[in-house]
Specification:
Blueprint: H1 10-17, E1 24-27, H2 34-42, E2 48-52, E3 68-71, H3 78-84, E4 90-96, H4 101-105, H5 131-137, H6 140-149, H7 156-167, H8 175-182, H9 191-207, H10 209-223, E5 224-234, H11 237-249, E6 257-258, E7 264-265, E8 268-270, H12 280-285, E9 293-299
Helix pairs in contact: 6-7, 6-9, 10-11
């Protein structure tokens, strides 16, 4: 498990979930199983855990435990999957939105700029869209949008134009090809940070991460019991903004609505005014935790 992925904010997330011994819980991002195992430790013999992950590699790490039911699928279909299992309400939902260390460390997956491999980046290897497909097929405006929105690049137009110009005369199928054509766009002394943002942008688009998160959040208010907990760990500002908006208003736009009596109707109550972040010790032991933010909400 540790080699596959070191869970971030593990104790804080499980504490926020407030696991009850006979409760029903959902881990929508099973990954290496770190959070799921901690939930199982706190569940009694009548408790249930429904775990989800769209990456087939994770199935090798499912605990041999009758209390866990694993589904290899995308959490955007959470409500449908739970309905299939006859589950109408749950006591808690946990989502760790980070990419597993396994994905960055397995060269052939194409998530890391450290290896010159095919531009893939699919969480679900059965998916049709790859990063290479985006590089080859998206328009300049589409490339500029994802680099700006998902990578938060200040010179996204320059990067998009560089890709368009380069692909007219050569295939950009590998990570090294992409890095070469955008090399002149990288600010001095910021290579690693900059490339991380570029690759993040393509990964988010390939896997439709913001759409999936939005769909899952909007299903959570229906699925959670009154007093149930929603725990989300995010890793970049766009994700955190969606979560913050949803906790505040019950929708991803952050717009609060009034009921028929003129009172604001909000389905959740946040447990913390500010997100919980990793300690210096945790960041020192796991540098990939440095951008993590944890938010916990209780269903009203």
């Amino acid at each position: 498990m540790t080699a596959y992925h070191q869970p971030v904010l593990l104790n804080e997330a499980i504490e926020g979930l407030n696991v009850q011994v006979s409760g029903t819980y959902v881990d929508v991002t099973f990954g290496g199983g770190g959070h799921s195992r901690e939930i199982l430790k706190r569940l009694g013999k009548h408790g249930k855990l429904y775990a989800f992950d769209q990456d087939e590699d994770t199935t090798a790490r499912i605990p041999d435990d009758r209390r866990i039911i694993f589904t290899c699928g995308n959490f955007r279909f959470l409500e449908n999957y739970l309905r299939f299992y006859g589950v109408k309400e749950v006591d808690g939902i946990l989502a760790d939105l980070g990419v597993s260390s396994h994905h960055f460390d397995e060269p052939e997956r194409g998530f890391s700029y450290r290896y010159n491999v095919a531009l893939d980046m699919r969480m679900n290897r059965k998916g049709k869209l790859t990063a290479a497909g985006i590089v080859a097929g998206y328009s300049e405006s589409e490339l500029e949008h994802i680099l700006s929105a998902y990578g938060e690049l200040h010179n996204s137009r320059k990067v998009a134009r560089s890709i368009i110009n380069a692909r007219s005369s050569r295939n950009l199928d590998k990570t090294g090809d992409l890095i070469t054509v955008i090399q002149h766009c990288i600010p001095a002394g910021q290579t690693n940070q900059y490339l991380s943002k570029v690759f993040q942008a393509f990964r988010i688009e390939v896997n439709r991460e913001t759409e999936n998160l939005s769909d899952m959040l909007e299903q959570s208010s229906t699925l959670l019991k009154r007093g149930g907990r929603l725990v989300v760990i995010s890793y970049h500002s766009l994700e955190d903004r969606l979560v913050k908006n949803y906790f505040k208003s019950g929708n991803i736009r952050g717009i609060t609505h009034k009921d028929v009596y003129g009172n604001y109707s909000v389905p959740f109550r946040s447990l913390h005014q500010k997100p919980v972040v990793p300690s210096e010790k945790e960041i020192k032991n796991n540098t990939r935790a440095r951008s993590a933010k944890l938010r916990v909400a209780v269903k009203n």
